[in-house]
C-alpha cells in the first residue's frame, strides 16, 4: 500500500508570502466598503473578508431615508426619492446597507420597509 493520497499537492511558491505596506482606505460615505464587506467591483483595490454582488432595489412610493447607521435616530445622509434605485449589499435585521444612485452615490443604511426588490 502506498503512503500517498489521491490529492494533488502543489509546491509552495518561492519567496515570502505576506501582506506588505498599508492597505488602501476608502473615503467614508462614497465607496461601498466597510470593515467586513465591499462591493465585488472593489475586490482588487480594497481588502475585506467578504465581497458582495449588489441586489437592485427601488425606493417605495414615500421615498427613503439614507442613514449613517442602521437606526431610525441615526443621522440622515439624504432623502432618496420614490422610485430611486438603491444597490443593496447587505441586509441585517430590518436594515439594508448599500449605495444610492449608482457607482458615484452615497453609501448608507435604508430601512427595508422603504425598499422593494427591483423587478417584483
Can you walk through the features of this model?
By secondary structure, this protein is an all-beta fold. The protein has a domain at 54-117: SH3 Domains (SH3 type barrels). Helix content is 0%, strand content 37%. The chain is built from no helices and ten strands. It has strands spanning 33-34, 37-39, 50-52, 55-59, 64-67, 76-80, 85-92, 95-100, 107-111, 115-117. A five-stranded antiparallel beta sheet has the order 9-8-7-4-10, with no helix packed on it. A three-stranded mixed beta sheet has the order 1-2-3, with no helix packed on it. Strands 5-6 form a two-stranded antiparallel sheet. Strand 7 and strand 8 form a beta hairpin. The termini are far apart. The model has no long low-confidence stretch (mean pLDDT 84).
Specify the CATH class of the domain at 54-117.
Answer: Mainly Beta
**CATH 2nd-level architecture of the domain at 54-117:** Roll
Indicate the structural class.
Answer: mainly beta
The first-to-last residue Cα distance is 60 Å
Strand order of the largest sheet: 9-8-7-4-10
Q: Descriptors for this entry?
A:
120 residues; mainly beta; SH3 type barrels; 5-stranded antiparallel beta sheet; 3-stranded mixed beta sheet; 10 strands; 0% helix; 37% strand; elongated
Summed up:
Helix content is 0%, strand content 37%.
Topology:
Blueprint: E1 33-34, E2 37-39, E3 50-52, E4 55-59, E5 64-67, E6 76-80, E7 85-92, E8 95-100, E9 107-111, E10 115-117
Parallel strand pairs: 2-3
Antiparallel strand pairs: 1-2, 4-7, 4-10, 5-6, 7-8, 8-9
Amino acid at each position: 500500500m502506498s503512503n500517498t493520497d489521491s490529492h494533488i499537492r502543489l509546491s509552495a511558491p518561492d519567496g515570502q508570502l505576506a501582506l506588505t505596506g498599508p492597505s488602501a482606505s476608502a473615503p467614508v460615505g462614497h465607496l461601498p466598503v466597510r470593515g467586513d464587506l465591499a462591493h465585488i467591483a472593489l475586490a482588487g483595490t480594497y481588502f475585506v473578508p467578504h465581497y458582495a454582488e449588489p441586489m437592485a432595489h427601488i425606493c417605495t412610493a414615500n421615498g427613503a431615508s439614507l442613514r449613517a447607521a442602521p437606526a431610525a435616530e441615526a443621522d440622515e445622509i439624504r432623502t432618496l426619492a420614490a422610485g430611486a434605485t438603491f444597490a443593496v449589499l447587505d441586509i441585517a435585521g430590518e436594515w439594508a446597507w448599500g449605495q444610492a444612485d449608482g457607482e458615484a452615490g452615497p453609501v448608507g443604511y435604508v430601512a427595508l420597509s422603504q425598499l422593494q426588490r427591483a423587478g417584483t
